[in-house]
Design a protein that fits this description.
This protein is of the alpha+beta class. The chain has two domains: about 110 residues, no CATH class; about 90 residues, no CATH class. Helices cover about 40% and strands about 10% of the residues. A six-stranded mixed β-sheet has the order 3-2-1-6-5-4. Helix 2 runs antiparallel to helix 3.
């Protein structure tokens, strides 16, 4: 489904859906450009991300070019450690701290995706975290053979995990996992042991929307219901939201 069609069906989600579309466009453009030019220099990859961010979000490049100097001055390599962008000491009279944090999160997204190699099949079984970037995941897909695939919100790696089980405390007792469904049958699986939850969806929803991160966004009302009951989401979604109000 096209984003504009989903917005017509769910106008209350217009703002997060529009932001999702921009982040997806940013990530896709950066991936294509990286593959086309085959750059090894992380300074050139920084240029790619910043220029595409400028284009997608319609922000003059001159307004954000200082970020390259800040990244290089930090001595950290976002290609190897994308999360290092989150702690850049950026100060701004025009942007709030929340806006700065959101911008840095969005800028890190292409770098996380750069970590992933096509065809990787590492599972989430050992730690419950993404085996590529070490991130917690709060989203999974139940595939045709009734197996669970956890999906990393940052590098987008998908890997197998126990069909019934909490990826945070490894509780596998089905009587200690409660299920809530929304109107599209997207599930919230609540762990009664550690008070956290993940969302899961079946292949039918994937066929309809074609993108697990879009499914995560359209089910934001489910996050609100679950979090009002006191359950915790351990990882942000694609637009950087973890606490949904």
């Amino acid at each position: 489904m096209k984003i504009e069609d989903i917005i017509k069906e769910k106008p209350h989600l217009q703002s997060p859906l529009e932001l999702y579309e921009k982040i997806k466009t940013l990530t896709d453009q950066c991936k294509k450009e990286k593959e086309r030019v085959k750059l090894d220099s992380y300074t050139e990859l920084i240029d790619i991300v910043l220029k595409n961010f400028s284009s997608v979000f319609q922000i003059p490049y001159e307004s954000i070019s200082f970020l390259k100097d800040e990244i290089l001055k930090s001595g950290k390599n976002p290609v190897k450690d994308p999360a290092s962008l989150w702690s850049l000491p950026i100060q701004s009279e025009e942007l709030s701290r929340e806006e700065i944090d959101r911008m840095l999160f969005i800028l890190s997204k292409p770098f996380f995706v750069f970590l992933r190699k096509e065809g990787q099949k590492a599972s989430f079984m050992d730690t419950g975290k993404c085996p590529i970037c070490g991130t917690d995941s709060s989203l999974s897909m139940i595939v045709e053979n009734n197996e669970r695939v956890m999906i990393c919100p940052l590098c987008e790696h998908g890997g197998s995990f126990f069909r019934i089980g909490c990826p945070y405390c490894f509780n596998k007792n089905s009587t200690r996992i409660e299920i809530l469904l929304d109107e599209e049958e997207i599930r919230a699986e609540l762990c009664l042991e550690c008070n956290t939850y993940i969302k899961s969806f079946k292949e039918e929803q994937y066929i309809k929307y074609k993108d697990p991160f879009l499914i995560d966004i359209i089910s934001l009302p489910l996050d609100i219901v679950v979090q009002k009951r006191g359950y915790i989401r351990r990882s942000s979604n694609i637009i950087g939201l973890r606490i949904i109000e």
